[in-house]
């Protein structure tokens, strides 16, 4: 019998590969963004940080030359000498107009902190004590070696037993960050917290808002509207409609469809606030539909 000819597995066409990448659940990255040790007093264990949120499903565009459709390359350029290799660039801090202090990689390494490789737990707090303005980005803190599993689970279970959040510090992206550690299922979620000098005082933002209270009847109607539209938070009910519209636009253009510009939406300038509130009270169809979808999903 003649031997069968081996055939190479063909790659999916670019069109199909992009279509498969268009939608789907967020996935854990293949590599951690940080590796080191989690330390509680004299107890420590090797851990790794992975992003809990992903932007891999975002629609992203490249800049092209419209005459050739070639992708544009961003080349570092000195205004006096012209293009320069990126590898030859150095870091500089501007102390005054066009005057810089140049810092070398060795000098940056010299100021590295212990938190570059260790999350040292310093304090335990109640979750309600942390203002939501300070919460930043979520990460998954997972064991990176089997040898540290016992210490990891002890810390996780102790956090669960006490109902407290652990505060530690870690150096990420050249910045020391405060992180809040809390148990979640079999693991620990680490959320970076903003520092005091990063958060604008709300009093500054709302300084020009008058202290006068509106008509009590209007508040009562607004309260009823809120009651009509209340329900549990279910992320599956919501979607990024703009992102969805972008994907639809790209698919239609890919098929050669001529895109017709939609008519601009008229800007309705509401003058009578009471009338608008009463009209809103009657318009509860969307809220009821959302509630039905949530209930249906809960009973599955």
Describe the protein.
The chain is of the alpha+beta class and 300 residues long. Among the domains are: 34-55 and 111-196, Ku70, Chain: A, Domain 2 (Beta Barrel); 214-252 and 273-300, no CATH class. The chain has helices at 14-22, 105-110, 149-162, 202-205, 216-229, 241-254, 273-282, 285-298; strands spanning 34-40, 43-51, 77-78, 82-83, 91-96, 99-103, 118-120, 123-125, 135-143, 165-172, 175-184, 187-193. It has an eight-stranded mixed beta sheet with strand order 7-1-2-9-12-11-10-8. Strand 1 (34-40) and strand 2 (43-51) form a beta hairpin. The radius of gyration is 27 Å and the shape is extended. Residues 1-21 have low confidence and may be disordered.
Characterize the biggest β-sheet.
8 strands, mixed
Strand content: 15-25%
**CATH topology value of one domain:** Ku70, Chain: A, Domain 2
Just name the CATH architecture of one domain.
Answer: Beta Barrel
Helical residue percent? Answer: 25-40%
Q: Regarding CATH, which class of one domain?
A: Mainly Beta
Short account of what is shown:
With 300 residues, the protein is α+β, with helices and mostly antiparallel strands. The chain is 28% helix and 24% strand. It has an 8-stranded mixed beta sheet. A two-stranded antiparallel ribbon has the order 3-4.
Task: Supply database-style keywords.
two-stranded antiparallel sheet; 300 residues; 8-stranded mixed sheet; 8 helices; Ku70, Chain: A, Domain 2; alpha+beta
Secondary-structure map:
Layout: H1 14-22, E1 34-40, E2 43-51, E3 77-78, E4 82-83, E5 91-96, E6 99-103, H2 105-110, E7 118-120, E8 123-125, E9 135-143, H3 149-162, E10 165-172, E11 175-184, E12 187-193, H4 202-205, H5 216-229, H6 241-254, H7 273-282, H8 285-298
Parallel strand pairs: 1-7
Antiparallel strand pairs: 1-2, 2-9, 3-4, 5-6, 8-10, 9-12, 10-11, 11-12
